[in-house]
């Protein structure tokens, strides 16, 4: 990265010589204006276009060059701006030129406490959930045991990197031109016709539309019989087309328009549909299977141990003990001891 910076500085020097002989060169304070209206100081660089380009401000002239993050790194966010961040299990070298592998502990549990190690080799705390494996897995740490389920970033977002639980980790990041809603559940498109001299980001002041309706900055609002969604950005109200998810209908919630589940059913995020309400101590798996909380259940031909917690089902690898085999008991997967063997008192091993 440093070599690319030096080449940029050389380009800036060439431009300054050319400007000395060219009356058309800009007479500025050396700053440059980016496409989103942000000002870039002289000799300052910024990554754009999902880190595929690097831009340098040289004496008021904006220089753009193709760029690629170094090996074992990927495009992410740092301080709200695009940046190359080291992939899971790697960290920057002292000169910030390369990403070097980090040596971690074992593959699932911190020996000193109930903390866990995720699939990327990074530690995280008990009762925490993190993304790993390129945002394809959501992992929860429960008393030193890691439970895993499949995961997918929402529409109009991609897998990036954010600092969380002491490491730069996998995180879903909204695509360019989009921003998270207040609950970080989905990415909303920013206004295409926003003022070019302003950064495209939410303001701290509420907005007022042409009808005098006030929209706060901390949430989006569904309007027009659930056919539009409005939010406050760059000092104005932005509207975009919207459609309620399948199996939901347009209704009211807290005296406002909202997509609601009909007939007392409830929305289930991992199923992406409305389902009959669950009991307080139950969870529903992606296949619709219901599990009770605080209980481990053998599943998937005795290859997984599933656990219900906080309304989500998590899974860890499992196998029947030596001299045991997988069977069915009361309609569920279960391990049995082979002929001539029986369970020990803890029901963990098959013994003679």
Automatic annotation (TrEMBL):
The lineage is: Eukaryota, Metazoa, Ecdysozoa, Nematoda, Chromadorea
Key words, A-Z: Signal
Record protein name field: TILa domain-containing protein
**Short name of one Pfam family:** TILa
* Source superkingdom: Eukaryota
> May I ask which residue range the UniProt record assigns to the signal sequence?
1-20
The organism of origin for this protein: Steinernema hermaphroditum
> Which residues are in coiled coils?
none
Pinpoint the TILa domain residues. 32-85
């Amino acid at each position: 990265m440093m070599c690319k910076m030096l080449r940029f500085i050389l380009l800036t020097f060439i431009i300054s010589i050319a400007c000395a002989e060219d009356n058309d060169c800009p007479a500025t304070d050396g700053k440059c204006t980016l496409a989103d209206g942000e000002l870039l100081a002289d000799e300052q660089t910024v990554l754009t276009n999902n880190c595929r380009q690097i831009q340098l401000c040289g004496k008021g002239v904006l220089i753009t060059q193709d760029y690629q993050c170094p090996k074992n790194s990927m495009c992410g966010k740092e301080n709200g701006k695009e940046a190359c961040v080291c992939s899971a299990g790697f960290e920057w070298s002292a000169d910030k030129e390369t990403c070097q592998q980090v040596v971690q502990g074992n593959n699932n549990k911190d020996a000193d406490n109930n903390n866990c190690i995720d699939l990327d080799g990074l530690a995280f705390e008990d009762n925490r959930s993190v993304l790993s494996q390129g945002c394809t897995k959501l992992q929860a740490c429960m008393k030193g045991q890691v439970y895993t389920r499949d995961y997918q970033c929402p529409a109009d977002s991609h897998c990036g990197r954010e600092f969380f639980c002491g490491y730069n980790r996998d995180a879903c990041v909204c695509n360019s031109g989009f921003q998270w809603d207040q609950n970080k559940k989905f990415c909303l498109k920013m206004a295409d016709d926003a003022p070019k001299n302003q950064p495209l980001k939410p303001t701290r002041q509420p907005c007022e539309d042409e009808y005098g309706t006030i929209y706060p900055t901390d949430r989006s609002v569904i309007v027009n019989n659930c056919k539009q969604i409005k939010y406050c950005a760059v000092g104005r109200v932005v509207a975009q087309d919207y459609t309620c998810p399948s199996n939901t209908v347009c209704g009211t919630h807290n005296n406002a328009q909202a997509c609601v589940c009909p007939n007392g059913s409830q929305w289930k995020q991992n199923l992406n549909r409305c389902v009959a309400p669950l009991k307080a101590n139950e969870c529903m798996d992606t296949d619709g299977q219901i599990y009770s909380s605080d209980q481990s259940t053998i599943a998937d031909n005795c290859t997984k141990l599933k656990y219900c917690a906080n309304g989500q089902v998590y899974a860890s690898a499992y196998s029947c003990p030596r001299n045991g085999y997988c069977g069915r008991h009361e309609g569920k997967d279960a391990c049995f001891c082979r002929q001539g063997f029986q369970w020990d008192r803890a029901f963990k091993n098959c013994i003679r």
